[in-house]
Amino acid sequence: MRAPPRIELVELSTLKPHEHLRPARLHQVYYSIRRTRTLYKPLIADAQTLLLIDGHHRLKSLALLGVRRAPVLLVDYERDIRSVRVRTPLFSLKPEYTSLTGAGERMRLLDRLVRLPLLPAKSTIHETWAKRVVLRYRL
Description:
- The protein is α+β, with helices and mostly antiparallel strands.
- Helix content is about 30%, strand content about 30%.
- It contains 4 helices and 9 strands.
- The strands form 3 sheets. A 4-stranded mixed sheet has the order 1-5-3-4.
- A hairpin with a 7-residue loop joins strand 6 and strand 7.
- The longest helix has 14 residues.
- It is globular, with a radius of gyration of 15 Å.
């Protein structure tokens, strides 16, 4: 039986990002978190692999601010991710997205994301209810 989704304080160094960052977006997120000293959305990661699904810019911003642990919504990739849109081709300037809706396709992608080097920013878009979770975590 799979564990239900849960929010836990997780060591940031254990999370596995899979995409590069956009410098302008990192700048925005960093200064917003620094100014408010508050995280309004948890990072989202797969509970088994700790692959970061959502929150790459928040993760880097928190690390730059010296934060070591932060709230992470740990989800079951197979159950809680409804679909993944993957940019094709990955290095295109005008990308199109291919939607992966089958559980087998998504799990093969998860396996590849854990093993591959970082992809370009916004190479994947994970569609999940978990992105609607809001919290107010003071740093």
